[in-house]
Amino acid sequence: MSKIDMENIGLSQRFISESNLYSNFYIGRVISQYKDLYKAVTENGELTAEISGKFRFAAKTLADYPAVGDFVMLDRNNDTDGTAIIHHVLTRKSAFIRKAAGTSKDEQVVASNIDTVFICMSLNNDYNLRRLERYLGIAWDSGAVPVIVLTKADLCDSLPQKLLEVDAVACGVAVLVTSSLTGDGCVAVQSYLGSGKTIAVIGSSGVGKSSLINKLIGQNVLQTKDIRNDDKGRHTTTRRELIVIPSGGVVIDTPGMREIGIESADLTKAFADIDELSTKCKFHDCTHTSEPNCAVQKAINDGLLSAERLVNYLKLKKEAKYEGLNSKQIETEKISVMFAEMGGMKNAREFIKAKSKRRRGF
């Protein structure tokens, strides 16, 4: 049986060196997950795996558990003796993280060890600059390098105008224009691929992620569907999986971005223009709303920055602050902000208590 080229699927010297700390174990990479079972690939092929009882006991958060893209240490490197056991997850170089459901702020890794993130946005129904800004913030926070991939160019009648709009929010990020119908842009996309490279493809459902991946791997492995008439994408990918690209490297397909939150997004890179302008404001804690000598507002008045971009920036900052909290916690946070100038929550509680007494006639 021929050996799997582990270097081609991302095994670098960095991971090899760390794996040497764990004797009597074998290195593998997680390629898919279904509930508590994982599929991993080693130099001897694919195998089914689960975490050890000791691993489960030691794990403090969901982020400690294996995720698609992780390099892990296994007790075997073939599937001849049943289910393999995962004992360790090697240190991640990048990761997409989502907040777990509920009131806790526990984090779960969606995919890891990614080099480049293709942010897909179609040039027809899905075109949305505000959503693109959100994706850029999440991509930068992952530790990988984002690349904007505009799909369905054949359906766009105003490509030059839309390219200008995208460039205004891209902040130095490469922008590629593609069409699955004509094949345009495929060469530019493939320039980011290669042996050892891991690509993640993200974006709303129905924007052409599966079509793009099928193009990269040279066959129709993934089912594709269009955006519905109501402008909402149809879900075709139901779970994350890592797919080997024949020309070299791997690609991780992910479900729609609804599951990845904004809380830890890197807004300083996604909104680098606003961040740079902020350094020229009169006040270092300027909110860019009503303060005098605000460089951000001046840029808007001079036509150098769109008001919509600032609104979205402030919205995402606020959303990040409240994400992961339940309704009671959100209300507490809002009250804290409202009464910050009065001395914080202690004074706020006294104010509310006094107001309640007045209502009851005490």
Brief overview, please?
With 362 residues, this protein is of the alpha/beta class. The chain is 32% helix and 20% strand. A 6-stranded mixed β-sheet has the order 10-9-8-11-13-12, with helices on both faces.
Structural write-up:
Helices cover 32% and strands 20% of the residues. It has 12 helices and 13 strands. The protein has 3 domains: 13-91, OB fold (Dihydrolipoamide Acetyltransferase, E2P) (Beta Barrel); 111-259, Rossmann fold, CATH 3.40.50.300; 267-360, Probable gtpase engc, domain 3 (Ribonucleotide Reductase Protein R1, domain 1), CATH 1.10.40.
Topology:
Elements: H1 13-19, E1 26-34, E2 37-42, E3 45-51, H2 53-58, E4 71-74, E5 84-89, E6 95-99, E7 107-112, E8 116-122, H3 129-142, E9 145-151, H4 159-170, E10 175-177, H5 186-190, E11 198-202, H6 209-217, E12 241-244, E13 250-253, H7 267-270, H8 272-278, H9 295-301, H10 307-322, H11 327-338, H12 345-360
Query: What CATH first level of the largest domain would be assigned?
Result: Alpha Beta
Helix and strand succession?
Answer: HEEEHEEEEEHEHEHEHEEHHHHHH
How many domains make up the coordinates? 3
Query: Which sheet architecture does the biggest sheet show?
Result: 6 strands, mixed
Poorly predicted segments: 223-238
Distance between the termini: 85 Å
Key terms for this structure?
362 residues, alpha/beta, OB fold (Dihydrolipoamide Acetyltransferase, E2P), Rossmann fold, six-stranded mixed sheet, 13 strands, globular
